[in-house]
Amino acid sequence: MEDVTLIVKTETATKGRGSYGFIFACTDNSQDECLARMLFGTSRQYGAIAIKVRKGDFLFLHNLDSNVLYGIFRAKTDGKKNIVEEAWKGSYPYQVAVEAIGDLIPLANGTRLLQQMGIKRLTILHEKGSMRLCNFFRPLNVEVKKWHEVLLTYNEKRELKTEPIRNWELLGRAQKLNDVEEVPELQATTLWDFPRQGYGKTKKGDNKYAGVTPAELIWNLIWRYTESGDLVVDPMCGSGTTLDVCKEEGRKAICYDICPPRDDIQQNDARSIPLSDNCVDLVFIDSPYGDNIRYNDHPDNIGNISSETEEFYDELEKVIKQSYRILKPGKVLGWLIGDQWVKRKSTPVGFLLYSRLTKYFETIDIICIARRNQSSNTGLWANRARRHNFYLRGFKYLFIMRKPQEGKQADIRERKVNWAFYERGKNAQSNQRAS
Question: What is the CATH number of domain 21-182?
Fold first, then answer.
């Protein structure tokens, strides 16, 4: 067996976490540019994966057209935006510069291999999982232990002569990985349903906190409406979910609460935010929905005011004004709110708040957030709702609003929309007639 000489150990991924693994995708049209530039890129849809890459991590390139998985690459830089701004004509701005470890080895049936191992494009392979995928590119003339040493000490000045193992000899050995982490996915519809409060390997907020916000909700807002380094403000941040998500996703965050449970949350009343005008890129608010939850005993807590009173909305409007003031023109406010039904009276809290929001902001969209894990989500309460003919609250509103651009004139021209009408298939037509 040919001896593989080891050179000096080079800088690997973030200290303490080992070398992680990431899958990047290309097509026949983009593969040549990937390899010519030795640059991998992706769109905002998968940008959260790209920015988590650290210098020294292992990368793999999956051609979706040919279904070939190429490896092994190593990250020469951390993932960031626009390393080469003109690459792919700007279509894939979240990028990583790479180098190949030895000769590139193409594995056929890439989709099947990744599926068997439970790997998706939004999967982060931790150290053990990363090495197990690397093993599928191991040359015949190198033992597994020596191969791992080569990967962790590879120096681009040294040539690595290899004979690749054929992919079809290895597929039978592919087993689902446990040492992985899933990055959230950008929501595509106006119905968002998050089964768990958190995601990933790190804690985000406190899932035992009264009225805690789903972390993926905040993740979706910052990935749609901010860039790395932007400033996010949460004036009513509760247990700190916004702060934790922003730290992990490379956003700056200032979080306040009238009664903060953590040292990194500043004590402040949301009706008077101590920031200058036009300085914030995103404001997120998960406010009280009335006096239905006992958050704390602070005398100025808006959550001590009933949502059945005009006073409640007057006080929230003060928060709206502050949010408008600190937001940069054209930037976004996300506000989470729920309705109330108590003692046979329904209060459309969301509608009443929305009427106040539209006095200051333009509407981007209204999202329905499925409610989970609330105290009434039990068989006992479901039985009561049916027996006594009322409805439990099944969703919350997420109002996504934009601060108008300064000096922008309203577009009063008549809009012409060219709707696309699609023919139904034969099966659909026959099913419609049968019904």
Answer: 3.10.590
